[in-house]
Model the fold of this input.
Amino acid sequence: MPRSSTRTSSVKRSRTRRAGESAYGALLIARMGLMGVLALLLLVAGVWTSWNTAQYAMLVKARERGTMTVKVCRDERCTGPYVPTEGKGRARPKVSVAQAAAPDLGERIDVTVKPGSTLAVRTGLAGILHAWVPFAGSLLLAALVVAGGMRLRRTAWVMGLFGAVLLGAAFAAM
Done:
């Protein structure tokens, strides 16, 4: 007589096999956790680095705002005279801005001066996008970690595309 299909039989696995399966599962969980921490660390570092400049480009109400004329560019910095337009500012003969954020020589750009220094940060859409470039790079790096280490490919694609769009927008705005 054939056996009934409603009857189930359990297969006993040895203790060694069960321990091996548990250890493998623990390793998978540990890998996911480690890669998640690494991706989070990359993103936090990108935001931290970007915020150092972005706060001046974005939150300019209580800051010294004005225009800078680009005169000389060398050593990754461009310098030129600064003329205040808003706030409690004073004209300065020389302030400097990152060369990547500066246009061609002789052009005027809107800037805000960091308090207590002669370092200027470009404002407006171009300045904001330029300030968030380190975060865009960290998004691209974290996307690789998420795709390769965590096997979350869709999430990685979204992160990578967002980073690439942010980099492209910053390049186009300059």
